[in-house]
Design goal:
Largest sheet: none
Structural class: mainly alpha
């Protein structure tokens, strides 16, 4: 038990936790990184050094792709929020138009009823 705890703490301290980024790097990215590393290879540079450079380029490409995904996600969220806001505005405008139409028709009803009641009252007084 104590041995496993020391291994876990050693891994945490050394930072040797397996990362998802290594698994997520595609073959295309690896090939592209190796091509870039070979194109910038200097005379006297060993294959191991070139591989290390290629690994660094792979990490950079993976980080760039991750950032682009995040930016695309943010753009999509902003676009969706904008479309929702437009839909809300259209809905509110539609409700406003219906309320205005209701208000325009409603003043005639009370005035009409008032007129009819006065006519009825005057008729009742005249007849009696």
């Amino acid at each position: 038990m104590a041995a496993t705890n020391t291994k876990k703490t050693a891994n945490k301290q050394a930072g040797t936790k397996p990362s998802a980024a290594k698994k997520a790097i595609s073959e295309e990215t690896k090939i592209e990184a190796l091509q870039v590393a070979k194109s910038t290879q200097k005379p006297g540079q060993t294959k191991e050094q070139t591989k290390l450079i290629a690994q660094g380029i792979e990490k950079g490409i993976a980080e760039y792709k991750k950032l682009q995904k995040g930016k695309a996600r943010e753009r999509d969220k902003a676009r969706k929020q904008e479309s929702r806001a437009k839909a809300r505005e259209a809905n509110i405008a539609e409700q406003d138009h219906s309320n205005i139409e209701d208000r325009a028709a409603s003043p005639y009803l009370p005035w009409g009823l008032l007129t009819i009641s006065w006519i009825g009252f005057i008729t009742y007084i005249v007849i009696s």
